[in-house]
Amino acid sequence: MSSCCVSGFAWNGTPSGREEKAQQLNYYIAGDNKDVAILLLHDIFGWTFNNNRLLADHFAKEINATVFLPDFFDGEVVPEEAIFNPEHEIKVDIAAWKERNDKHIRGPAVHAFAEMLKKEMGFKKLGAIGYCWGGWAAFQLGAKGKNLVDAISAVHPSLLTKEEIDDVAVPVQILAPETDPQLTPELKEYANKVIPSLGVDYDYQYFPGLTHGFACRADLNSKIEKQGLERAKNAASSWFAQMLNLR
Q1: With 0-12 CB in 10 A as exposed, 13-18 as middle and 19+ as buried, what is 226?
Q2: Distance between CA atoms of residues 210 and 15, nearest Å
Q3: Which H or E run contains 217?
Q4: What residues have CB less than 8 Å from 218, skipping those under 6 apart?
Q5: Which contacts of 196-203 are long-range, i.e. CB under 8 A and separated by 24 or more positions?
Q6: Which portions of the chain are predicted below pLDDT 50?
Q7: How far apart are the C-alpha atoms of 38 and 173, rounded to whole Å?
Q8: CB within 10 Å: which end of the chain, N or C, has fewer?
Q9: What's the maximum distance between 2 C-alpha atoms anywhere in the chain?
Q10: Average pLDDT for the chain
Q11: Exposed, middle or buried, 87 (CB in 10 Å: 0-12/13-18/19+)?
Q12: 78 by DSSP, 3-state: which?
């Protein structure tokens, strides 16, 4: 991960969901569908970030699903003021943060939460969408033999490996900006070569002129970023509605 992961803008708006707790994890929840759930795997700004909660609200309404946004950083919060923009330049030690929140450390909680949604809460359909840091987690949940989720979407994913791409076994969507030091041209090419050979539904959408983080930290005063954000939200909503057989 790099400084691009803390770039972008915070949005205005008041989330309409609520906070609850399960498996010693706090989570934000929006929606009330008892059969269909979406697990939103957050970016570096975590479960309290207003943008992430507004996205959860959007998906709950547009997909008609119950959306869960858990805290996978054990209470650690990167302040919104750390977003690099002309007004705030508070630097975050990305290397130290990444070590504390490495996928090998946080992965077990991600898998356990998905398992709880499917087996204990009894949701019949479960999708997972991962933004930035959460992108690798979406792929892992959709891996061969896991039987945890029915479809995934990875939005400008960070830390994603070729091995995780090779192992995906459920319908997968990738929303890819033109410029992304995490989802590199090499990794984009690899995904577009390998995934169509895996026998799963695949939706790859390319966003020219946009950069890493646009779909969860877009500058709403920028026409191209706002349009990209709206297109990404709508693409993910449509993807899950189709792959979870809701339309």
Answers
A1: middle
A2: 26
A3: helix 214-217
A4: 8, 9, 225, 226, 228, 229
A5: 198/168, 198/169, 200/168, 200/169, 200/170, 200/171, 200/172, 201/151, 201/171, 201/172, 201/243, 202/171, 202/172, 202/173, 203/171, 203/172, 203/173, 203/174, 203/235, 203/239
A6: 1-10, 85-89
A7: 14
A8: C
A9: 47
A10: 90
A11: exposed
A12: coil
pTM exceeds 0.90: yes
Taking residue 74's Cβ as centre, other Cβ atoms within 10 Å add up to: 14
Instruction: Quick: pLDDT tens for 13-34.
Output: 889 999 999 988 999 999 999 9
| Three-state DSSP state, 132 | coil
The pLDDT assigned to 56 comes to: 96
Helix intervals (H) in 121-204: 134-141, 162-166, 185-194
Cβ neighbour number for residue 188 with a 10 Å cutoff: 16
pLDDT in tens, 130-166: 999 999 999 999 999 999 999 999 999 999 999 999 9
Would you state the structure tokens that stand for residue 155, as one six-digit string? 């939005």
User: What is d(CA 80, CA 48) in angstroms, rounded to the nearest whole number?
Assistant: 10
